[in-house]
Amino acid sequence: MNGARSVVRDRGSVAVEIVLLTPVLVIFVLLAVFGGRATEAMSDVRHAADQGARAASMVSRGRMDAVAREAVLTDLRNRNITCAAPGIETSLDASRRYVTVAVTCRPDDRDLGLLDVSMPELRASSTEVIDTYRGGD
After folding, report:
1. How far apart are CA 60 and CA 63, in angstroms?
2. What is the pTM of this model?
3. Residue 92: which residues within 8 A CB-CB, separation 6 or more?
């Protein structure tokens, strides 16, 4: 008889556990989505910096800024990354043999409202050797 009393007392406890654990599991899933989105966005910003540096290394010094900017913006657009105000800086080293393109981007995070978090500002840079056979200087 004592076993029957125990079963009656435990009735519904699984439902209570599920109700209590569901929000925790949903939060873990949302955090995993946020982490994945942040990692993918960082990879995309690095790729855009690489593309900008490569494009800038193949043109004359006077056109490097414009070409790098266009290459970065095109790559971000092709990867569906929307930056609030992308920062793109092009610089030459002291020997003027290397060009570096630095990209800063704060990706759009409006669809992450359930977490009440915002994407951090992402920064990446890439350096390329200037092509000595490019068109005019």
Report:
1. 6
2. 0.76
3. 61, 64, 98, 99, 100, 130
